[in-house]
Amino acid sequence: MKKGNNIYKRKDGRWEARYPRTRANGQIQYGYCYGKTYAEALKKRREMEELIEMGIETKPIRAKTVADLCDQWLRHKALHVKPASYDKYVYSINAHIRADLGPVSIQALDDEHIDRFTAGLFDKGLRVKTIRDILSILNSILAYAAKRFPRLRRIQIVFPRDDKAPARVLSEEEQTRLIEYLRADLDPCKFGTLLALMTGMRIGEICALQWKDISLADSLLVVSNTMIRLRGHPEESKKKKSSFPRPKAPPPPGSFL
Length: 257
Prior knowledge:
alpha+beta, four-stranded antiparallel beta sheet
C-alpha cells in the first residue's frame, strides 16, 4: 500500500521510505529507511536528507569494529547535539578512542580492553576530568551499541574518582595588583582579561562583542552572542557563531574601566 511521499507499506507491515542518497554516472542512487509507522519512516528519511545536506555519508555502516561503531554513533549525534559538542566528540574519539580501541572487534570488546584503555589515558598524563569526559563518550557509544546489537554484552565502565582541589580565589590585594598590571600599557589581550575580570564574561562572549552591544552613555554592555571554535563539525564553514539573548546588568559606577 502506498501512502505517498515515496513511502510505502511493505508486506511485512513495516513502512519503507526512499530518498536520493547520491548520484553516480548520471544515475540517482537511492537509500532506504524503515519504520513501524508512516510517521516514523518519514522522520527517519528527513534525518537522512539532513545528513546528506550536512555532507555526512548516509550509506549504512556495518559495525564490525569499535571504529565502525564510533562512525555510526557520530552520525547519529550530528543531528542531535550542538556543533561545539560534536566537535568535542570527534576530537576525543579520533585522538583517543579510535586510536587505541578502533581495530578491536565489537564482539571481542571486554572489560580488560576498557581497563587497559583507561590506564593508557593516565599514562598520557591527562587530567582526571579529561579522562572522565573521554570515558563518558565511550560509555555513550557502548550504550548506543547495546540498543542496536542486543546480543552484545553490556560493559560497565568504572570512572576514576575526581578529587578536585578547591579553586583558589585571588585576594583583594592580588586583584588590585592584577588590575593595575592590566591597565598599564593596555593592549587587546590585557583589555579582554580586564573585561572578563570586571564583568564575569566568558572568553567566547568577549570575542563575539560588537560595538552595537555597548552603550557608554548608559554604562551598559549586552551579551547577545558567543564565539565558538569548531574543528570537526560538518557545518563548520556555515556556523561559526551561536547566538542567544543574555543581557548583563550594567557594572557598578566606577568599576568599568
